[in-house]
């Protein structure tokens, strides 16, 4: 399915789990058939899995940096890898305040971005990512998480002197892709619309890929 999506123009694929990302990205068929593929990691990254993630072929971005310690460990591991390019990273923000979701509080984000820019020379800060609250009724207005992330970008750019068009926003999924693009998302995590519904009953089996749309370009994600 990844190869088929690639053949139709998809280039960026995302994955939620380190082991599955490593297996998919290292697949000989994908390596030979998809020479320009780029992988993003969008799951919660535990520090003990950093080195495993850094070994992923064609890793392009880590979207879930949520602490100074994780940023430092990723920076060090990427340096040791010896890649000529910096690893793109996003800072994950918990915009809903739910304990079940990972990410920094909005108030803590500027300090982490400043740390990445000043102390992590092998990383390139490119944007903010959030997993918003589920089940919001859009007829009642925009998802509050979207508004929090939009406001945070404005505040962050003003404080750090970063042009807003240099800070991407990763939010939204298949169910609300049109809405989140309209309100400002540049990356939308599309899965079921392209690859079908995920079967949670087969937990031991590899997850099917999911696609992401990067407005205005298409990119793809595996999860």
Q: Average pLDDT across residues?
A: 84
**Relative helix content:** 25-40%
Distance between the termini: 12 Å
Q: What class would the helix/strand composition place it in?
A: alpha/beta
- Our estimate of the beta-strand percent is 15-25%
Q: In one word, what is the shape?
A: globular
Regarding quaternary structure, how should these chains be classified?
Answer: single chain
Low-confidence stretches: 203-209, 212-223
Strand order of the largest sheet: 1-2-3-4-5-6-7-8-9
Q: Secondary-structure element sequence?
A: HEHHEHEHEHEHEHEHEE
Rg, Cα atoms, Å:
17 Å
| Total helical elements | 9
Short overview:
The chain contains nine helices and nine strands.
Description:
The protein has helices at 2-7, 18-25, 28-33, 50-54, 68-81, 109-119, 144-160, 177-183, 192-195, and strands spanning 12-15, 38-41, 59-65, 87-93, 123-130, 168-173, 187-189, 209-214, 217-222. A 9-stranded mixed sheet has the order 1-2-3-4-5-6-7-8-9. Helix 8 links the parallel strand 6 and strand 7 (187-189). It has 9 helices and 9 strands. It is α/β, with parallel strands linked by helices.
């Amino acid at each position: 399915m990844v190869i088929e999506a690639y053949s139709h123009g998809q280039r960026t694929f995302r994955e939620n789990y380190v082991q599955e990302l490593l297996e998919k990205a290292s697949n000989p068929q994908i390596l030979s058939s998809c020479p320009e593929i780029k992988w993003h990691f969008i799951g919660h990254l535990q520090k003990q899995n950093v080195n495993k993630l850094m070994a992923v072929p064609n890793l392009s971005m880590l979207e879930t940096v949520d602490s100074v310690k994780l940023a430092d460990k990723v920076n060090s591991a990427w340096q040791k890898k010896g890649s000529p390019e910096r690893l793109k990273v996003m800072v994950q923000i918990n915009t809903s305040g739910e304990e079940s979701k990972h990410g920094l509080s909005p108030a803590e984000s500027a300090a982490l971005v400043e740390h990445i820019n000043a102390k992590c020379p092998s990383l390139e800060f490119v944007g903010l990512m959030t997993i918003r609250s589920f089940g919001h009724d859009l007829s009642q207005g925009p998802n509050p998480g979207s508004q929090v992330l939009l406001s945070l970008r404005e505040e962050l750019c003003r404080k750090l002197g970063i042009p807003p068009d240099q800070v991407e926003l990763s939010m939204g999924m298949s169910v609300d892709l049109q809405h989140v693009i309209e309100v400002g998302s540049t990356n939308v995590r599309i899965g079921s619309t392209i690859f079908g519904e995920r079967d949670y009953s087969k937990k031991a089996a590899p997850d099917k890929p999911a696609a992401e749309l990067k407005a205005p370009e298409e990119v793809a994600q595996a999860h």
